[in-house]
Amino acid sequence: MLHIRRSWITALAILLIIPLLLPQSVSAKASSKDNGAKANSKIIYLTFDDGPTAHTGQLLDILDQYHAKATFFMLGPHMETYPKATKRIVADGHGLGLHGVTHVPGKFYKTPYTALKEMQQANVSLNKVAGVKTSLVRTPYGSKPYMKAPYRNVMLAQGGFHMWDWNVDSEDWKYKKDHQRVYNSVMKQIHNVQKSGTTPIVLMHDQEATLKVLPKVLQTLKSEGYKFEVLNKSVQPVNFWNDKR
Hints:
disordered N terminus; NODB_dom; about 55% helix; six-stranded parallel sheet; Peptidoglycan/xylan/chitin deacetylase (PgdA/CDA1 family); Glyco_hydro/deAcase_b/a-brl; 9 helices; alpha/beta
């Protein structure tokens, strides 16, 4: 009898312990899935200014290799000089933006209407080459200090454009030969912006020097779970003036 009683006690103990173990196992799996979802939901916007150029094809090849999308803020004359590259940017599903015509502050910012006219002309070039238009703009050298209220009122309210700057400057325009410095700087900035709870918007340039550092940047971002998105008119603009129009 004593043996039977011990067997019943042991069986009862096992039955009581099993339910306690099962929820813990399921909870751990769910937690693992949640963490994975959070890692995969990290969004980043890569942007490239001053193109298209003779190097755009290589740049697009690198982006394609890493299944990454970006947004290109292009110059009117460059789009007409490199129509094949412009068409491929559109065909590959990258974001489309305008960067003006002259890229000369004294000409672009001469009046609020000269700034608007350059963006409109750039849009004409984009439509002529690729049959599309865009409302996204990035003004030469960024919107501060030039794009004061009168300029923004004309560009955004009258022109219907949406103005974008950046919160991560890769400085690829400055350190064209020091690729490691560019990599270290851009990754540090991205991590800092991400920690602050803000989506990174990275300024890079469509140039030969950038081709040397881009693969390493993309490889690291992919390994860290970033998802590459494109800017469009449905995304609320981020600029130095905090103008959400």
